[in-house]
Amino acid sequence: MKIGSLDLGERPVLLAPMEDVTDASFRILCREQGADMVYTEFVPSDGLIRDAQKALAKMRTLEEEAPVGIQIYGHIPESMVDAARMADRAAELVGGHGADLIDINFGCPVSKIAGRGAGSGMMRYPDKMVAITKAVVEAVKKPVTVKTRLGWDEGSKIIVELAERLQDVGIQALTIHGRTRCQMYKGSADWTLIGEVRRNPRMHIPIIGNGDITDGPSAAQAFERYGVDGIMIGRASFGHPWIFREIKHYLSTGEQMPELDVREKVALARRHLDLSLQFKGEPRGIFEMRRHLSCYFKGLPDFKETRMRMVTTLDREELYSILDSIEERYASLPTSS
Fold first, then answer.
1. Residue 97 belongs to what H/E stretch?
2. The domain 262-330: what is its CATH number?
3. Catalytic, out of 30, 108, 182, 295
4. Whole-model pTM?
5. At what angle do helices 159-168 and 192-199 cross, to 10 degrees?
6. How far is CA 94 from CA 59, 317, 326, in A?
7. What is the pLDDT of residues 165-223, one digit of tens each?
8. Separation of first and last alpha carbons in the chain
9. What is d(CA 310, CA 265) in angstroms, rounded to the nearest whole number?
10. 8-253 adopts what CATH topology?
11. Is residue 182 annotated as part of the catalytic site, yes or no?
């Protein structure tokens, strides 16, 4: 699959952009575990143009995580254009690797974003969505892609026509999450319309499917039944960065990869913690890893008390000690994902 001149190979598996999840430490770990491409957390266009330090920091990427996309969101056309230009020059502005592409977030369903017309809130204003996309494409040199949903609600699933319009203004790939905004993350993702977009003879850009891909078989089905060019993994990656390795193993062999043992999971949790502390220090590097730490050891028996200690401490040495104790106590047991 190619996005502009960026070649991601056959049947690539990508890490979805997720706020408070896909920071540099997690992006690097997922790349090490087989993700073909990763994305930054959501970068607010209004925050960037005000030179907000937090927004600017989200644009800093590193060579070891490339290829990487910077994702921007907003609902004001001028702000989106300015933010896209800054993302295009990220390496110059904030150092590091910069962006291999710029992705526009028209998919986030949370109220604080969608409620003011950004993210998937833009599904109610397709003409404005297309106009913003066209302006961004014309403003930058790097490839522009879009991530969106099927529509606003069950009565307005506009993605088939919308995909053509977005392609016509110059995007170079489209990621579709198989739910409407009103579904949020409830129910099951509907891949039938994603497949319809892919089979549309007018579509020639890569179509990436997203939603409910949790293992090798569901990934294989996305490629084989719906014909997508790539897949994107979101919530299933929480505390489970090796999911990319599992999926690629299944796609290449048709067999499930053997489950990691506790020692291997402890090693990955340690690697993740090391990276988080390296980039963020204490206590932030520990605090912002809690979402993942609560998921790393799912399935271990009698683990509730240990998990509680692990996600409440802000002390580096205590957390490393807890990881040591997990390895010692459960080393002989496999875990379930």
1. none
2. 1.10.1200
3. 108
4. 0.94
5. 40
6. 7, 32, 39
7. 999 999 999 999 999 999 899 989 999 999 999 999 999 999 999 999 999 999 999 99
8. 29
9. 15
10. TIM Barrel (3.20.20)
11. no
